Amino acid sequence: MASKLPKTTLNLKQFLMRQEVLKLYRDIFKTLRKVPDEKTRLELRDWARIDFRNNKHHTDETVIKSMLHYGKKSLKDLQRTLALSES
Q1: Residue 71: phi, psi to the nearest 5?
Q2: Complex 1 LYR protein domain: which residues (predicted)?
């Protein structure tokens, strides 16, 4: 029988930051659907999942904001690349 970890209550700031992380995650996967090459799409999908999973333990607000900034920049770069390839 697996022991259950106690649920921690998030304060408003943590809740809003969590929502921002989840939005970034969804936006990345929505954008990845537009990658034309299936192999590349699957590799990027796996990389994104692993990256989010490997960083979910962070609780320091500064670290999370930094990673969010980097993730948003990477997403914009990917979107720009895809837009150029469609032209």
Answers
A1: -65, -40
A2: 19-76
* pLDDT at residue 20, as a whole number: 97
Token match 């962070």: residue?
A: 58
Give the three-class secondary structure for 82: helix
Token pair belonging to 56: 């979910």
- Tokens read off for 9: 């209550």
Burial class (CB in 10 A: 0-12, 13-18, 19+), 28: buried
CB 86 within 8 A of CB 67: no
pLDDT of residue 6: 67
